[in-house]
Give the backbone structure.
Amino acid sequence: MLQFQEPEHIGMLREVLKRFIAKEMTREKARQWDQDNHFPREVHDQLVELGMMGLTVPEEYGGSGRDITGTVVVIEELCSRSLSVGGAYIQSACYAGLNLAEVASEQQKRELLPRVANAGLIFAYGISEPDVGADVASVRTTGTRQGDMIVVRGAKRFCSGAALCDYIYTLVRTGPVEDRYRNLSLLLIPPNSPGVQMKAQETMGLKGVGTYDVQFDDVVVPVERVVGGEAGLNEGWKKLVGPGLDIEKLEIAAMALGIARAAVEDAWDYSKDRVQFGKPICTIQSIRHLLAEVKTKLEACRLMTYHAAWLLDQQLPASVETSMAKLFVCDTARDIVITCQQVMGAYGYVRGFDMERYVRDILILPILGGSSAIQKNNIANRLNLPR
Ligand SMILES: Cc1cc2nc3c(=O)[nH]c(=O)nc-3n(C[C@H](O)[C@H](O)[C@H](O)COP(=O)(O)OP(=O)(O)OC[C@H]3O[C@@H](n4cnc5c(N)ncnc54)[C@H](O)[C@@H]3O)c2cc1C
């Protein structure tokens, strides 16, 4: 059943975050991080101190227990101000915390999960390749077993946070090509391993953690760094598309929700201050209608996101709802932000106004983490629409 009122602990979490953002993530700082493509590690560390990374880590490994709604709130709030911080939060709490809790070996959990909760360990996703986008199972980077070692050769593209992460969560082919879906493994590769080279890519938005081309030239990885341990060899596909995938779709929806909310708040305020023809533009009917529309769409995005999060917290099936949320929220948030830019006229297009950054940032979200087209495929397939 859909909950319309946020539980008390979630309201308190939002309050803590709002105070933190007002103090440590001012608009001026967020603009500077974007401009410099800078990741403020000190802010990440303060979030660790506040216990935010522990929301994905079970108590027996040093966290506060898995709380998907709480995690989504943190992402929404942080991304309403800065993806430089919000992106890294996801790479720590979700890429590292949720994945390890879900699919790592017991030894890996004991070693790494406390480091997520207490030190903000960061993973980068090494999945996409120059010739591999949506068709993830076709990765060409190989891992060849030699005794207790795996030798990795190949190239990854769009590896966000590769330069600042602790491990690249790397999808490699460890079995014969013809064993599709049964020939993949996930490896934990430190970015400073001998044979790893990286080159930054210029992107329009999503600044802060940065995204990289990563080359692996005979990088040697011990078998114990296969996610799931030795038993995880050739089990990479199952680990990648397991329950964690549903949460991943919501992470991107929460980012989009945060950006869209910030855009609506800015456009709303701007419309009250900007005077044309002797009166604030918020009194003009066409502007009022645009703002009423974006408020309404934002509410729909919020309900879809938190309904899906609630399903996940109840351990109920949510693969359709999370795909719907990823599809609807990201596409709608993009429309919302573009409309808000329109409300601000020329000022929505210039540097120095945050709206310009919201536009650059929102455009990638319908593409990342399974594009809108892929989500439509998923929804139709999961609902058994005959092909
Ligand atoms: C800023 C940024 C950060 C990123 N960060 C990461 C990261 O950290 N790690 C990582 O691994 N990747 C990352 N990516 C890559 C991102 O996940 C991919 O861009 C995404 O998976 C889509 O792949 P592609 O762009 O190569 O598109 P393609 O797969 O080549 O698709 C091109 C078009 O075809 C459509 N399409 C493809 N297949 C189908 C199909 N079966 N049905 C319908 N339509 C289809 C797509 O929707 C899209 O419109 C990042 C990308 C960017 C730009």
